[in-house]
Amino acid sequence: MEFNHADLFEGLADAIGERTAVVCGGERRTYAELDAEANRLAHCLTDLGIGPGEHVGLHLYNGIEYIAGLLAALKIRAVPVNVNYRYVEAELLYLYQDSDIRALFYDVEFDARVAAVAPRAAKLEHLISVGGPSAVPGAVPYPAALERGKPERGFPPRSGQDVYIIYTGGTTGMPKGAMWHVEDLFMAFGGGNPYGAPRATPQEVVDEAVKAGPMMMMSAPPLMHGATQMATFIAWWMGATMVYVRKFDAAEVWRTVARERVFTLGITGDAMATPLADALAGGGYDLSSLAVVSSTGAILSGAVRDRLQELLPNVMILDNFGSTESGYTASGVAGSSPEKGLRYQPNAAARIAVLDEKLHPVEPGSGQMGTVARSGRTAFGYYNDPDKTARTFVTDDAGDRWLLTGDLATVDADGTVNVFGRGSQCINTGGEKVFPEEVEAVLKGHPAVFDAVVTGIPDERWGNRVAAVVEPRPDVEVTAEELDAHCRGLLSGYKVPRTYAFVAEMVRSPSGKADYRWARETASGA
After folding, report:
1. Residue 348 CB contacts under 8 Å (≥ 6 apart), including other chains
2. What are phi and psi for residue 338, nearest 5 degrees?
3. What are the DSSP calls for 495-512, one per residue?
């Protein structure tokens, strides 16, 4: 075996094949059953002419078909590509074309969009529909795709240098495909051992999974988000069962936690924590199995975290720091929050630094601000985007290659990293810097606010003014004057929003990230 996700999964299927690998709703597969299903799909893809290095799109809600299709691509050394299911036709066309997908698994609920876009994607030749009859011409139904392939393996050898792409939408602009070598991806997300040193050999991953025994782990975000893909593999390397819900619904998440006796639950920031806390407030769920709630990929504000902790007094709530390009890099320090300051302790296995403009590490304790960077096991570039690759992956004077995350931070004398926010979203108002995350967290601390996104909009006097888009709680009224008074009690005057736009529903990505383009347009209209 190599440190290759397909190799490692096959090793687990041989060693713990009878153990349940995945659960979604009423569907479940053992490791052996999922391996056989993925083998069938892999042989089908090969028969369709999909070979090593070619790209396979996954335009699906959560389900067994998603993870089986992903494994099938990896088994034949093809490259899986996640597709955001919320994209409209123009965005889908960009992604289909930019990613050069040759085959696509898609849910029939997206028939109209796929039918409109697929013929215009020059390299897309093969469609596999999931969930029933499809009206898209030429699509092969998922059951027929399974029938075309045999359940045995018989695949050529793989490599730790095989490529894995995760498209990330971020908060502005069109999505970009972060390219990883699978061995680096494996190591950057725990190395098979999220609690200590990476496993020394692929066989050790399998051996430790066998000894670990069954455990139920759940990731609430969609599989089209890299966090849930990585959480799935981390669960498997621990010999555990990964549990999904088809679409995020807070009540369904808690029902599933109770039914499946889930031990750990992964979420992405306030966008999931807030509705989960609201659903919990109604009670009625047996959550005695739950020990850990872990947030990553989006901001978890202090007020939301405190409310969730109050409702789950016996559960450990973790806030992790990382990105699609960097992997898991740091864990939140006790008491850390956007309101009080985001403070993280770097992961011992990650080479993390805060670099100045000359790519020199800032002096710990100096208060100098720089950009959080990681060296070593990271993504190696962006697909079809050499310019962004050159700006993000840089080499210092000593010849070391760094990934610049875009997060601005300082370093304490003890090595703790204080993260202020994304440099690209920092608002310069009259020469003062305002980080949206801090203001958003304060707004969410108001009892009438369900969600908030803060951005900068043009201002003749100050260059930019701070503006907030606010979604009030259902059936609750709140005024700009009330929010202004609330913010002035907790923030310096220059950080307080000058403009408020109230909306019935906030626009966010499926992973919970803010859509700052939309927020800027909405605030400007107010």
Report:
1. none
2. -60, -35
3. GS-SEEEE-SS--B-TT-
Q: What b/e string do you get for 152-184 counting C-beta neighbours within 10 Å, with b at 16 or more?
A: eeebeebebebbbbbbbbbbeeebbbbbbbbbb
pLDDT tens across 3-13, in order? 999 999 999 99
How many angstroms from the chain centroid is the CA of residue 188?
14
d(CA 31, CA 21) in angstroms, rounded, equals 5
Q: Which CATH number fits domain 5-182: 3.90.25.10, 3.40.50.980, 3.40.50.740, 2.40.10.10?
A: 3.40.50.980
**Is residue 418 helix, strand or coil?**
strand
Q: What's the predicted TM-score (pTM) here? A: 0.87
Helices and strands in the chain: count of H runs, count of E runs: 16, 27
| pLDDT (tens digit per residue) in 31-67 | 999 999 999 999 999 999 999 999 999 999 999 999 9
The kind and range of the H/E element at 252 are: helix 250-260
Phi, psi of 463 (to 5 degrees): 85, -55
In the block, tokens 């999505």 appear at 175
Pull the structure tokens for residue 56.
Answer: 């396979």
